[in-house]
Structure to design on (134 residues):
């Protein structure tokens, strides 16, 4: 098998998504995976930094709304919630619904507890099977 080029990687549509019925809201929402950039920004926004600039903890305020704001999209994959005010409004919805949808968002984005712990600097790096040095 030939190795991929940057153009081939860029052209690949690797988005994952699920359309989820939300009877409490009277319809269906589309939850799409975050891009690498969005995922990093989300994880960074969750961190509480100490005076030394190192992660000291995780800020869980509006955690589900902040995650869903990056994952709820329309049919053209444009985000539904962009502004801080919109995210705050989303956070006022039923917590059980937000938690259920956040579970889907985590799954399609490959986020788990270990990913959040790693972002907070609480886990050991995984040893690599191969070296990338040349």
């Amino acid at each position: 098998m030939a190795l991929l080029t940057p153009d081939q990687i860029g052209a690949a549509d690797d988005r994952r998504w699920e359309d989820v019925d939300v009877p409490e809201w009277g319809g269906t929402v589309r939850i799409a995976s975050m891009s690498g950039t969005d995922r990093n920004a989300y994880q960074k926004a969750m961190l509480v930094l100490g005076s030394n600039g190192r992660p000291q903890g995780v800020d869980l305020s509006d955690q589900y709304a902040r995650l869903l704001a990056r994952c709820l999209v329309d049919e053209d994959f444009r985000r539904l919630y962009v502004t801080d005010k919109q995210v705050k409004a989303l956070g006022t919805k039923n917590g059980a619904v937000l938690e259920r949808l956040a579970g889907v968002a985590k799954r399609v984005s490959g986020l788990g507890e270990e990913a959040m712990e790693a972002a907070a600097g609480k886990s050991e790096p995984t040893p690599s099977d191969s070296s990338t040095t040349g």
